[in-house]
Design goal:
The protein is an alpha+beta fold. The protein is built from 13 helices and 6 strands. Helix content is about 60%, strand content about 5%.
C-alpha cells in the first residue's frame, strides 16, 4: 500500500495540503477585510478600488452583514475539511482517515464550485457596475478557481458523470441564490432613485431641524466638504447630517473618475485626505461631529442633533 501511495501523481499526494494553504490565505484575507469593513477603515491596497468595493452596496448581504463574513466562513470550511483528515494518524486510525477523506472530498468540490460561481458573479459586477480594480476580489476569485481545479484533479473520482451533474446543480442553485441576495441592489438601480455612475450613495439616515439648520448655515458661509464617492468615512460624515440636510452642503467630488469630479479644486485647496472641510479658509481633515462643525463655523442655531 505504501508503494502504491508513492506512485500516485504529485497533485493527488499533496492536494489537501495545497487546498489547506490556499484556504488559510483566504481566511486571513477575509478576516482582515471584515475588520476594515466593520471599523470603517481604509484597506491597504495599491488602488482605490478596494475601498470602493467595500463601500458599495454589494459589500453587504441584505444591507446588514458584510459579505466578507461569508467569505471567511467559506474559506474556513475549506480549511477544516481539507486539513481535518490529515490530522488523523493513518497508522493508528487508517479506516477513520479514509472515511473522513471519502466524506469530505464531495463537500470540498461542492463548496469550491459554489465559491467559483459566486466569485464569477462578483467579477462581473466589478467590471460592469463598480468599475474598479480590487486586488483582494481578484485574488479571491483566482483562489476559488484554483481550489476547484485542485478538488477535480486531487483524487480519482469514481463517477465523473455524477460529479459534473452535481456541479451543474451547484451552479444553478448558487446563481439563483446570488441573484436573490442582490435583488434589492439591482432593483434599486432599476427603479426609484437612479444614481449616476460613480456618484456617492445616499445617506442612510434622516435629518432633523437642527441638522438642516446647520447645513444651511454652512452653505451660507461658503463652507465646502471635500470627499470621494468610494470613501467610507465620507459616507459616515454624510450620515451625520442625513439625506435632506446634506442637500444643502456644498459637496466637492475629488475622485478623478467620480460624478461631476472637481479634482483640480481639491488640489488647489490642499486637500490631503477624505473627508475634509473648508470652513472660513481653513481646511479640517477627518470626520467631524456636527457640534465640531457648529463650533468651527460659528453656528448659533439649535443643536439637538439626531445623529
Amino acid at each position: 500500500m505504501r508503494r502504491r501511495r508513492q506512485q500516485l501523481p504529485w497533485i493527488q499526494r499533496y492536494s489537501r495540503f495545497i487546498l489547506g494553504a490556499i484556504a488559510f490565505v483566504g481566511t486571513i484575507e477575509t478576516i482582515y477585510l471584515t475588520y476594515v469593513k466593520l471599523t470603517g477603515g481604509s484597506a491597504t491596497c495599491p488602488t482605490g478600488g478596494c475601498d470602493q468595493v467595500l463601500s458599495s452596496p454589494y459589500a453587504t448581504v441584505f444591507g446588514v452583514i458584510p459579505l466578507t463574513v461569508f467569505g471567511f466562513l467559506a474559506y474556513g470550511s475549506m480549511l477544516v475539511m481539507s486539513a481535518g483528515p490529515l490530522l488523523v494518524n493513518p497508522e493508528d486510525k487508517k479506516l477513520l482517515r479514509q472515511k473522513l477523506e471519502d466524506m469530505t472530498w464531495p463537500l470540498l468540490f461542492i463548496l469550491a464550485s459554489a465559491m467559483t460561481v459566486f466569485s464569477g458573479y462578483l467579477m462581473f459586477i466589478l467590471a460592469t457596475e463598480i468599475k474598479a480594480a480590487c486586488v483582494y476580489c481578484i485574488g479571491s476569485a483566482i483562489m476559488s478557481v484554483t481550489m476547484l481545479i485542485i478538488t477535480l484533479l486531487g483524487r480519482v473520482w469514481d463517477d465523473l458523470g455524477q460529479l459534473f451533474f452535481t456541479g451543474f446543480l451547484v451552479f444553478v442553485v448558487t446563481l439563483v441564490g446570488v441573484l436573490g441576495v442582490y435583488s434589492g441592489v439591482n432593483a434599486g438601480s432599476a427603479g426609484g432613485e437612479v444614481l449616476a455612475a460613480n456618484a456617492p450613495p445616499p445617506a442612510a439616515t434622516t435629518s432633523g431641524p437642527a441638522e438642516i439648520s446647520l447645513a444651511q448655515h454652512l452653505s451660507t458661509i461658503g463652507a465646502r466638504k471635500f470627499g470621494a464617492y468610494w470613501c467610507p468615512h465620507c459616507h459616515d460624515q454624510k450620515d451625520l447630517f442625513g439625506e435632506e440636510a446634506f442637500t444643502y452642503v456644498n459637496y466637492v467630488e475629488c475622485a478623478p473618475d467620480g460624478y461631476e469630479a472637481q479634482a483640480e479644486v481639491c488640489q488647489a485647496a490642499g486637500v490631503r485626505g477624505y473627508p475634509s472641510w473648508d470652513i472660513n479658509g481653513e481646511v479640517y481633515g477627518g470626520v467631524r461631529s456636527l457640534n465640531e462643525l457648529a463650533d468651527l463655523s460659528g453656528y448659533t442655531g439649535p443643536r439637538d442633533f439626531k445623529n
